[in-house]
Design goal:
two-stranded antiparallel sheet, alpha+beta, binds 2-acetamido-2-deoxy-beta-D-glucopyranose, 2 strands
Length: about 90
């Protein structure tokens, strides 16, 4: 299985994915899930609320797809985020 992982990684990253940039064509659907984890502080006098939140971002990039039968049935792999093109998103103070 380790060999299949390696072959798949070489296949997916035959071109440097971070340099591909955004996909061209139709607009990309990006889904955001925002989870509340905990209240850190609430300062009513200064109207300041601090929360711990988790933002999960989902999108489909067909450039990272493969045919499972050609890779020993491998249906998922873990890849470091810094080698992927990731939609540029920001969360600001509200
Ligand atoms: C996946 O690969 C197998 C074996 O090469 C092939 O028979 C099948 O048609 C491929 N499936 C797709 C969706 O390309």
């Amino acid at each position: 299985m380790i060999f299949s992982n390696l072959i798949l990684l070489l296949y997916l990253f035959r071109i440097c994915h971070t340099q591909l940039g955004a996909m061209s064509g139709s607009p990309l659907d990006v889904i955001f899930d925002l989870y509340y984890l905990k209240l850190i502080s609430l300062d009513a006098e200064r109207q300041l609320l601090s929360l711990c939140l988790q933002l999960k971002t989902f999108w489909q990039d067909p450039r990272l797809s493969w045919n499972m039968t050609e890779f020993s049935g491998l249906d998922d792999i873990f890849v470091a985020a810094d080698v992927l093109w990731i939609p540029d998103t920001q969360v600001g103070n509200a």
